[in-house]
Write a structure and sequence with these properties.
single chain; 3-stranded antiparallel β-sheet; about 50% helix; binds protoporphyrin IX containing FE
Length: about 375
Amino acid sequence: MTLTTESVYFDMYDRDIYADPYPIYRRLRDEAPLYFNEQMGFYAVSRFEDAERVMVDRETFVSSKGMVYNIMPYVIGGDVAIPNGLFICEDAPVHTMHRSLVSRVFTPKRVNLIEPQIRAFCAGVVDRLIGADRFDWAKDIAAQVPMRVIGMLVGIPEEDQVKIRDHFNELLNEGTLDSTKSPFEALAQSEGLFGAHLDRRTSQPSDDLMTQLLTIEFEDDTGTRRNLRREEILTFLNLIASAGTDTTSRLIGWTGKILAEHPDQRRRLVENPELIPNAIEEILRLEPPPYHFGRYVTKDVEMHGQTVPAGSIIDRDISRILSFGFGAHLCLGANLARIEGRIVLEEVLKRIPEWFIDLDHGELTQGIDTRGWESLPVSV
Ligand code: HEM
C-alpha cells in the first residue's frame, strides 16, 4: 500500500465525493479539522464539537447571510437579499419572533393529531405495492409520504401536492447546481403556488396551518399588534413546505437502503417493532439527509490554532445527533420527520418484511443541500 501525501480536498459540488463522502469526512476530521477551500472561499469544520460550537455561538456564526453555500456568495455579494420571514436565514431578535410565531401553530399536539391520517396514507401506499416483484423505494414510497403529510398539515388539496413537490425538487434540489438561477426563485413563485389556497382559506376557514397563520395575532418589532401580512404567510408556507419534503424523503429513502443492507437488523425490527424509533435515530445519524450547512463569521475566531477571519463562510458536513441542527435553529419539524420515518417503516415491515436493493440502477439525488436517493429500485 502506498501512503498518499496529497492534501485532502472537499467541495460540495464534487459528484464523486457526494456519492461516497465518508472517506473524505474521515480525512477532513483527522488531517484538516479546519479545512479551507481557497477557490470557493469557505472554511469547513467536520468534527462534532466544532460543528456544535458553530451552531451554538450565534454571536460569531450567523445565519442571516444564508445557511447553505449555494445562497451565501449571492447574499454576501449583495446580489440578493434574504426575504423577510425566511427565518432559517435570520438571526435574533427577528429570527426569535418569526420562529415563535410558527412554533405557536406548529405544535407537537397538532403534529400528533394527524398521526392516524399519516398511518392511513402510508398503509395505502404500501398496500399498492404488495404483490409487485419490483418497485422503486425512493419514488414509490419515499417521495410520496412527506408531500402528502405537509399537504394535510398546511391545507394544500391533494390534486396540487405533486405539483408543489416537483416544483421544490426542481428549484431547491436540482436547482442548487444551477448557478444562473436566483437561490430564492422558489420563494418568488409562492403566490402562484399557495395564493389561491390562501384565498380559499380566507373565505372558508378550516383547522389547518394556513387558517391558523391567517388568524394569528402578534406584536411585531415596531410594537404594533396585528395579523400576519399575506407575503409573510407565503414565506412561512414556503419554508415549511420546502424544509419538510425533500429532507424527510431522503430519510425514508435511506431507511430502505440501509435496512436492505442489514437484513439481520431488519429482522429484529420485524420481530420487535418497538425498536423502530431507535432505528430511525440511527439511520439519521448514519446517513443524515442534509449534506452541508453554512454560517457567516462575524468576527475573527480561533480554531485549531488558526484564525478564521471575520467575513468567512464556515461549512459543515452534518453527522450524529446534529442531523436536525442544534441551538436556535434546531429543526422545527424534527418531531414530525421522526413520526413519518417511524410510521412508514412500521407499515412497510408489517406487509413487506424483506426486499433487495438493485444499486446498479439506483440514482443519487442531484443537489448539494441534501443527500439521498432519487431512484432506488428494489425486488421482493
Ligand atoms: C429528516 C427530516 C429533516 C431533517 C434532517 C431536517 C434538518 C434540519 C436542519 C439541519 C435544520 C437547521 C438548519 C440550520 O441550522 O441552518 C432544520 C431547520 C428547519 N427545519 Fe428541518 N429537517 C427535517 C424535516 C423537517 C420537517 C418535516 C419540517 C416541517 C414540516 C422542517 C422544518 C424546518 C424549519 C422551519 C427549520 C428552520 C428552523 C429555524 O431556523 O429556526 N424540517 N431542519
